[in-house]
What does this fold into?
Amino acid sequence: MVVDGFTPQSVNDALVWFNGVTDGYLDALGTGLIAGRDLTPQDGAGAPPVVLVNQTLAHHFFGDASPLGKQIRINEHDRIGPPMEIVGVVEDAKYRRVDEETLATAYVPLDQAGLRRGSIQLVVRTDGAPGTLIPAVTETIREVNPAIALVFNTLRDQVGASLARPRLLATLSGFFGALALLLAIVGLYGTMSYSVARRRNEIGVRLALGAGRAGILRMVVGETSKVVAIGVALGALLALAAMRVVASFLYGVTPSDPMTLSLSALALAVVAVTAGLLPAWYAAGVDPMVTLREE
It folds into this structure.
C-alpha cells in the first residue's frame, strides 16, 4: 500500500491484506464499525473509490491521527492504482487463523476492487442452525447459474480447522506433560518411601522409649513437608524462569497460570506426604522389639 507521508522500513512494512466485499459483509460477520461509515450499495463501479481499514492498519500507517478522509493507493506489480478515500475504520479481525497476529486489512467495494473473481465467498448469517440454510442457498444460486459449484463451511468449522494444528500440539504437550508428572510422582513416592523405610530402626527405638504412633506420624509429616516445601519453591522458581521460553507455544493460557502451577504443586505434595505416611504408619504399628532386631 502507498500512503503519502509514510516511508516503509522494509518491503513487508507496507503489505496489507485486501478484501473485496459488498455492503452488509461486516454486519454478517459481526465486525463493528468504530469510526466513519460502512460501505453502501452506492459505492459501485462508477462511484468515487472508497475503502474501509481496520484498527491495525490505521495505527500502523497514520499513528494516532484519524485516517478518515485520507487517501491510499495499491501498488500491485509495480502498478500504482488510483487513490481510494478512507471512509471508515472497523474492528480488527483474524484473517486466516485464530492464533495469528492481527494483520493490516482493508475492505474495498467488490465492484471497485478489480480483483480476479475465480471464486467468491458468500457470507450468510442466521439465528438458527447454519445447516438449515443450505438447501435454500443452493436453490437460489442455481436460479442464477446452475453451473456454479458450491462448498459450504460454517464459521465454527473454519475456526476449528485453523486450530487443528495447535490442538494437536496441545494434546501432545498435555500427554507428555502428564507423563512427566507421573514419572515425577513415581520417583518422588519411591524416594520418600525408601527414606522413611530406612528409619524403621529409629522409629522402633522411639517407640521403645515411649513415643506414640501419633507423634511418630507428626514427625514424619513435618520432615516430609519441609522437603516438599523446598522442592515446590525451587520448582516454582524454575517454572517462572522458563516462562519466556514457553510463552510463544501457549494460546488461551499464560505461562504463570496459577491453576496449573497450584494443581501440579498440590499433586506432588500429596504424593510426597502419602509416601512418607504409609511406611511410617506401618513401621509405627510393628512391635518395637521386631524393628530393633532388624539389621
Observations:
- DSSP finds eleven helices and nine strands in the chain.
- Residues 94 and 275 are 50 Å apart (CA to CA).
- The chain has a mean pLDDT of 83.
